[in-house]
UniProtKB/TrEMBL annotation:
The keyword Protease applies. It comes from mine drainage metagenome. The keyword Transcription regulation does not apply. Its EC number is 3.4.13.19. The lineage of its organism: unclassified sequences, metagenomes, ecological metagenomes. It is an enzyme of class 3 (hydrolase). Keywords: Dipeptidase, Hydrolase, Protease. One of its GO terms (molecular function) is metallodipeptidase activity. This is Peptidase M19, renal dipeptidase. One of its GO terms (biological process) is proteolysis.
Length: 199
């Protein structure tokens, strides 16, 4: 785990290009979505965001608390991503984003990677629920901010949405996305990657 913001210089030389400030536990940089007290981005966290902007590294606020998401988006001068999560207006879950968080990420020009984590999709998750989250964010905030962050590597084989059991099922999702397929499947993410890594 990162302990000193200045370690980012070394980590970038080693190939790091994207960093998350927290996971399901608080760090000295930021509060997590599981935090008992949402203190948001700390001074050390501000240093991380500033250095990421300076070094052209991607800042990922997945697993972060609401205040952390808002703080990071206000601080960053470059697009911010939420690599894997869904919309809380569609399905209430601690890992999902409310409208204020989504709006903050969109204002940075960032993207939200919709996830296949079953509990974040619906009570009886299926491929069509993934589309519901995509349509909510796309129609309410702009399709240029919708991308995919399945988190399949974090799921056990028996804990997957019906009809979306593996990456091969992305072809079925493409059919559902219609005119927005290219944007969601790759264009939006590539735009952010290029803007940050190759300014």
């Amino acid at each position: 785990a990162l302990t000193d913001p200045n370690d980012l210089y070394i980590l970038k030389d080693l190939g790091l290009r994207c960093i998350g400030l927290t996971w399901n536990y608080d760090t000295k940089f930021a509060a997590s979505c599981m935090s008992r007290k949402d203190y948001g981005l700390t001074g050390y966290g501000e240093d991380i965001v500033d250095l990421c902007n300076q070094l052209n590294l991607i800042v990922d606020v997945a697993h972060a608390s609401k205040r952390t998401v808002i703080d990071v988006c206000a601080r960053s001068k470059k697009p911010v991503i939420y690599s894997h999560g869904n919309a809380s207006m569609v399905t209430k879950h601690i890992r999902n984003l409310d409208d204020e968080e989504i709006e903050a990420i969109c204002r940075t020009g960032g993207v939200i990677g919709l996830t296949a984590i079953p509990q974040t999709m619906s009570s009886e998750p299926k491929l069509e629920d993934f589309l519901r989250h995509a349509e909510y964010i796309g129609n309410s905030f702009g399709w240029e901010h919708v991308s995919i962050g399945t988190d399949f590597l974090g799921l056990s084989p028996g804990n997957v949405p019906a009809g979306f059991e593996n990456m091969k099922k992305l072809g079925d999702l493409e059919k559902l996305l219609g005119d927005h397929t290219a944007e969601v499947m790759w264009q939006n993410s590539l735009r952010v990657i290029r803007e940050i890594l190759d300014p």
